[in-house]
Specification:
Elements lengths: L10 E5 L2 E4 L4 E6 L2 E7 L5 E3 L6 H4 L4
Antiparallel strand pairs: 1-2, 2-3, 3-4, 4-5
The structure holds zinc ion.
The site of zinc ion (ZN) has 7 residues, from loops.
Length: 62
């Protein structure tokens, strides 16, 4: 899998179906082969970045 933002593969697994891009500092959670993209704010809350990407860009193409 790769990051939908930077297309990089510098992805770390942080939990069950949860990943983190070390290039962009965004969190990716996988649901039904579609990635939910979140930015972690300084206070620890998550804000969705899904609007920035098309569903196709967020779908894993195995
Ligand atoms: Zn990235």
């Amino acid at each position: 899998m790769y990051c939908p933002n930077c297309k990089g593969k510098n992805i770390g697994k942080i939990g069950n179906q949860q990943y983190y891009c070390w290039n962009c500092f965004i969190e990716l959670s996988l649901e039904n082969e579609v990635l939910d993209v979140h930015q972690v704010e300084e206070d620890g809350t998550l804000s969705s970045l899904n609007d920035l990407y098309s569903e196709d860009e967020r779908t894993l193409h195995m």
